[in-house]
Amino acid sequence: MDGATVSVAVVTSRTEADLIVGLLESHGLTAAVLADDAGGQYPQLQQDGVHIMVAPSDEASARRLLAEADADAAEPADDA
User: Fold this and answer.
1) Distance in angstroms (rounded) separating the CA atoms of residues 49 and 10
2) What predicted TM-score, i.e. pTM, was given to this entire model?
């Protein structure tokens, strides 16, 4: 990802951030994790959260995908 980026989400762990980046990348977006945790060696330094970054041109698509994923997660499972 070249140039400027924007944060589309802030989560509490690098693992969660990596899953979100995978979701975005599976839909053709380029995304990256930004965390001040010494490359994952000191997760206790993640006190300001872990940011998911995308190019400004992908921001709207990324936010839409994250909102859809959040809505899907909030729906109760259908045990039919």
Assistant:
1) 6
2) 0.78
pLDDT attached to residue 4:
92
Class of the 6-71 domain?
Answer: alpha beta
Do 16 and 58 meet the contact criterion of CB atoms below 8 Å apart? Answer: no
**Which amino acid, 17?**
A
Give residue-wise pLDDT tens across range 19-53.
Answer: 999 999 999 999 999 887 666 566 665 567 899 99
Between strands 6-11 and 31-34, the pairing is: unpaired
pLDDT-derived band at 67, boundaries 50, 70, 90: very high
- From residue 25, how far is each of 30, 45, 60 by CA, in Å? 6, 26, 14
Query: Any idea which residue has 């997760």 for tokens?
Result: 43
The span from the CA of 63 to the CA of 8, in Å, is: 6
